Amino acid sequence: MYWQEVSGNWFLVPEQPRGIIHFLGGAFVAAAPHLTYRWLLEALYNEGYAVIATPFVNTFDHGAIAQETLITFDQGFAFLCKQRPELKDLPIYGLGHSMGCKVHLLIGTLHRVNRIGNIFVSFNNYPAQKSIPLLGQAIQQARQFVPELGLETRLEFTPSPEKTLALITEQYDTPYNLLIKFRSDTLDQTRPLSDVLIGRFPNTTTVRIIKGTHTTPIAQDVQWQASTSFTPFDAFGQFVKQEFYRDIKVLKSEILYWLAGD
């Protein structure tokens, strides 16, 4: 399989696709999603789903990011539909990890989009000072010299975390949603999002809690070449590889199960 680039998107399209997945990654790995999330996205492709991964560069204006990624996706999808007309009749699902969840939510809140459902993995909606390393410390130091700058409000994401949840509560209209939280994820904020979505769509919102961490979705293939004579070291290497893949394989299974039942 070969990733191809169209209008700023990276995509994989199987011979007979059963649906389309629009993927958005986390803040610090979103610029090359076809590489950082390669194992997961290719696994979904191997199950018959067309994958369109849209890169983005993180800024403080998340509303602008949502608009830009939607425009980029629409341009790439329009081109693909000219090459493969059958794609335009397939269901489209959003899939996001971490900040990618917030961007999908803003797309579904601020714009009219045709999405059958959305999958949110490790939703993150922290304020800028908690999301960006050392930002809070830098603001405190700057306040000592120029207290009237008001950096706390000027250096905050737009919309703010509180405003984001308020917008979702009022305007988000995609009823089918899967929320996935990892048990050892200290950055996850699935709980407040699930409260909002279950309140809006109690019968069509699913929450799953599985083993893993915030970085589980970016696990990559580890090529372990056993020696000519199998040794205890080889056995240990294979064990580590199996453990490494266990959580991301469960993630893949949860996503596919939900897609099949939607």
UniProtKB/TrEMBL annotation:
The lineage of its organism: Bacteria, Bacillati, Cyanobacteriota, Cyanophyceae, Leptolyngbyales. PANTHER family: OS04G0405600 PROTEIN. InterPro entries: AB_hydrolase_fold, DUF1350. This is DUF1350 domain-containing protein. It comes from the Bacteria.
